[in-house]
Design goal:
The chain is of the alpha/beta class. Helices cover 26% and strands 25% of the residues. It folds into 2 domains: 125 residues, Quinone Oxidoreductase, Chain A, domain 1 (Alpha-Beta Complex), CATH 3.90.180.10; 156 residues, Rossmann fold (3-Layer(aba) Sandwich), CATH 3.40.50. It is built from 10 helices and 15 strands. The longest helix has 15 residues.
Length: 346
């Protein structure tokens, strides 16, 4: 057991349930006492935690089919985090100094059962990369889309946490052309110049419709869709699908982040006749259905990062006080890539 442990820590709680999208005013950073870990427990000092849109669904209470509990007023937020074990109780397999991942982010320290932590090694050159959403992109491309050499791949929401990795991963897996979408012209430039997309369509452009832009970017159609948005993007992608196209649905941000919904539905108009006549496969991706993907992804991601074949676009927001604002900024689409809160050493 280590000595001089902190007696208190801070965490982010939902102060009041929002009507519509939550903002910083709905959260509070609260100080609470810390106790030493008991048998089979560990105390982890969090270094980074993920800011992710799924919190909208949990706060909205729309958790049917979701393997996570709802977040009610007064509850602490949670989510993926990377940290260092600072104390371990009896019978714990961990020791102080061990680097771990767990789901008790949104707090400076986490006291939790050791079996809720996963030891991480040096597979990735930077521990923060363990918070990437690349496993979802990789799993969708390898398990559902089963990408083939020369495929034309369309990634919606390409400037987000999944999209900034889905495009490069598709290329490394053999795609011949990779097209993305984003609502920001500035982000479109970054996707082209920094991430390696061949073309980017911008919904809402005054010069051309989304359908028209996609026809121009993929005149022969698309073979694979990695969809994080839904809505108009999915509708239009179906019009561009080639025969036998494989659609992997990873997210539904069009409905999830709508102020008129609660985060648990994303209705969309689709042409079922076209799905039938073109033989299009349309499936939703869940990591829980493919538990082997996470380890496989870390191994390949680490190799690609070290070789320089891929990067990890992300932004680090310093300090737990800025976490509620960071969530609002994520909802507003202000950031590029993965968004994490970085906590200073204590």
């Amino acid at each position: 057991m280590t000595t001089a442990l902190p007696s208190a820590t801070r965490e982010v709680r939902l102060a009041t349930g929002p009507k519509g999208l939550p903002g910083p005013e709905h959260f509070a950073v609260v100080t609470q006492p810390l106790t030493v870990p008991g048998p089979g427990q560990v105390l982890v000092r969090n270094q980074y935690f993920l800011v992710f849109p799924g919190l909208r669904t949990l706060i909205g209470g729309q958790v049917e089919g979701v393997p996570l509990p709802p977040i009610h007023a007064g509850d602490a937020l949670f989510g993926p985090a990377v940290g260092e074990v600072v104390a371990a109780g009896p019978d714990s397999p961990f020791r102080p100094g061990d680097a771990v991942t767990h789901l008790s982010g949104w707090r400076e320290h986490a006291l939790l059962a050791a079996n809720r932590c996963t030891l991480i090694g040096d597979e990735l050159p930077d521990p923060v990369a363990h918070l990437s959403s690349g496993a979802a992109a990789y799993g969708a491309l390898t398990r559902l889309a089963e990408i083939r050499p020369g495929d034309t791949v369309f990634v919606t929401g390409a400037a987000g946490a999944v999209g900034t990795l889905a495009g490069p991963v598709a290329r490394l897996l053999g795609a011949g052309r990779v097209i993305g979408s984003t609502r920001s012209p500035a982000k479109a430039d970054r996707l082209l110049n920094e991430v390696g997309y061949d073309a980017v369509v911008v919904p809402g452009s005054p010069s051309a419709t989304l359908a028209g832009q996609l026809r121009e970017a993929a005149p022969e159609g698309i073979d694979v869709l990695v969809d994080t948005v839904g809505g108009e993007h999915l509708t239009v992608a179906l019009t561009a699908a080639r025969r036998g196209a494989r659609f992997a649905l990873v997210g539904a941000l069009s409905g999830q982040l709508s102020p008129d919904r609660c985060g648990g539905s994303a209705p969309v108009d689709i042409d079922s006749f076209r799905i039938i006549t073109q033989g299009i496969a349309l499936r939703g991706y869940s990591g829980a259905d493919h538990p082997e993907v996470a380890k496989e992804w870390v191994t390949r991601f680490g190799s690609w990062l070290r070789s320089g074949e891929i990067s990890f676009p992300h932004v680090r927001i310093p300090g737990i006080e800025r976490a509620p604002r960071a969530l609002q900024e994520l909802f507003e689409g202000r950031h590029f890539g993965t968004v994490v809160v970085e906590l200073p050493p204590q």
